[in-house]
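Quick one, probably user error.
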């Protein structure tokens, strides 16, 4: 059976993830046409994912297949985010029109990961072989997940505090930082955190989140005084 993400990878690789910027339309009509084509592709993928996982011979094989799919989706989102940032830094003339394409592709790819988390979370736990461990931190396996009481806006703000105070040395690659955090954290309300949502909230802190973080910082100060 064809790998369910192959069509998506090829489509994005020849457009949004291509080094040839002429592959990306710069007219409103061209952008709309590409968005429609991507929409049709994204709509078909959940069915392809289900058919693909159904070919597993046993639960352990299905678990490995699921793990590989999550890693592939992570890399797609990371690559899209990187190309988007490169376009911003290059001040590409048509980027303002194309930004919605990158945002759309990132959002829809994240939705696929949420789909996998929502419908295939009851597979048994398994040990990831050593050669696969570069992906271990990116998986949503129970053993590697940390739950936080912070909401996504609060978590994003807390991460920004850690970065700007020098606690975390990721100042030059926030996209990678938020992707890593989304891969290993979950909130009480959601098992899957969108890396893109985390990144957006990182740069646009909410007033409510600031007030909540002030309370947490105050609690931390009180604890430090007791130690």
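Nope, works fine. Designed sequence:
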């Amino acid at each position: 059976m064809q790998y369910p993400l192959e069509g998506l990878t090829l489509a994005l690789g020849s457009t949004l993830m291509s080094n040839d910027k002429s592959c990306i339309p710069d007219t409103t009509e061209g952008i709309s046409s590409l968005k429609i084509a991507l929409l049709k592709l994204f709509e078909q993928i959940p069915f392809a994912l289900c058919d693909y996982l159904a070919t597993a011979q046993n639960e352990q094989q299905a678990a490995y297949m699921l793990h590989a799919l999550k890693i592939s989706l992570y890399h797609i989102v990371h690559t899209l985010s990187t190309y988007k940032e490169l376009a911003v830094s290059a001040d590409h003339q048509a980027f303002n029109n194309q930004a919605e394409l990158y945002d759309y592709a990132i959002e829809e790819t994240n939705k696929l990961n949420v789909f996998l988390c929502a419908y295939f979370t009851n597979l048994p736990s398994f040990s990831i072989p050593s050669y696969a461990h570069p992906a271990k931190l990116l998986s949503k396996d129970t053993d590697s997940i940390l739950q936080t009481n912070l909401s996504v806006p609060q978590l994003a703000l807390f991460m920004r505090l850690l970065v700007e105070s020098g606690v975390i040395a990721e100042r030059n690659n926030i996209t990678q930082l938020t992707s890593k955090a989304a891969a290993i954290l979950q909130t009480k309300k959601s098992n899957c955190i969108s890396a893109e949502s985390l990144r957006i909230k990182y740069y646009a802190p909410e007033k409510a989140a600031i007030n909540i973080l002030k309370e947490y910082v105050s609690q931390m100060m009180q604890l430090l005084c007791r130690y």
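The two ends are 59 Å apart (CA to CA).
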